UniProtKB/TrEMBL annotation:
PROSITE patterns: AA_TRNA_LIGASE_II_ALA. The keyword Endoplasmic reticulum does not apply. It holds the Pfam family tRNA-synt_2c. Keywords: Metal-binding, Zinc. This is Alanine--tRNA ligase. It is found in: Cytoplasm. InterPro entries: Ala-tRNA-synth_IIc_core, Ala-tRNA-synth_IIc_N, Alanyl-tRNA_Editing_Enzymes, Thr/Ala-tRNA-synth_IIc_edit, Transl_B-barrel_sf, tRNA_SAD. Transmembrane segments: none annotated.
Length: 240
């Protein structure tokens, strides 16, 4: 499996790597990926690979369907760095950091609206969660104030790991109805917002997040849409 450098070094903007393989579709597989692959509603990272005075623009990142390894997808057909070559991988950091801010904001949204989550999506400007609830919340201003209160706390965002058996014994940790935490790869990653003794939020998640909630910045609650008899879609935007 490709190493997941994006998981252990979330704030790293560039790093060396070796080209491990090419995909039949023209993707590049590295031995240790700084690029986050599309998943969990979060888009794949974009950026650049450079080697031998050559540069390749990366449009997105996915998991290769056949091997399960992380594949960087070029923005256009161009010569790829050869297998075995050493490259510098560089993120489009502004885009990645906005994804981190939005992703963490959606965790807070799942706290202020305590209903099961049926779906979600992240972009560089806003995100949304779908909730299993029959009626739209009426207290929009209170919800927005609560979101920005959590941001103002500048609470720490950290990770922990539990076994699959421990997760089975604590099903309340799973907020998403449509996507189950990945199994079969060992321990399951938890993202905690706040302190260990009294967390604001604690749930399984494989995405990238900011280190403290203050880094999210001001938030604005957006549209609330009806997407079915028991489904409401709620948007949250960066930039107050």
């Amino acid at each position: 499996m490709t190493g997941e450098l994006y998981r252990t070094e979330t704030y790293l903007r560039d790093a060396p790597a070796r080209v491990a393989a090419h995909t039949p579709e023209g993707g590049v597989i590295l031995d240790n990926s700084l690029f986050y692959p599309t998943g969990g509603g979060q888009p794949g990272d974009s950026g650049w690979l450079t080697w031998d005075k050559q540069e390749l623009t990366i449009a997105t990142t996915v998991r290769d369907r056949d091997s399960g390894r992380i594949a960087l997808v070029p923005a256009e057909p161009r010569p790829l760095p050869p297998v075995g070559a050493f490259v510098k991988q560089e993120l489009d950091w502004d885009r990645r950091h906005k994804h981190m801010r939005v992703h963490t904001a959606l965790h807070l949204l799942s706290v202020v609206i305590p209903h099961p989550v049926t779906g979600g999506q992240i972009s560089a400007t806003h995100g949304r969660l779908d909730f299993n609830m029959p009626d739209a919340p009426q207290d929009r201003e209170e919800l927005e104030e609560a979101l920005n209160h959590f941001v103002s706390l500048d609470a720490r965002v950290s990770e922990d790991w539990i076994t699959e058996a421990e997760l089975d014994a604590a099903p309340e940790l799973i907020k998403t109805m449509s996507v189950a935490p990945p199994r079969g790869r060992g321990d399951i990653r938890l993202i905690r917002i706040g302190e260990v003794q009294d967390p604001i939020d604690l749930q399984p998640c494989g995405g990238t997040h900011v280190a403290r909630t203050g880094e999210i910045g001001g938030l604005r609650l957006g549209k609330i849409e009806k997407k079915g008899r028991l489904n409401r879609r709620v948007y949250v935007h960066l930039g107050g």
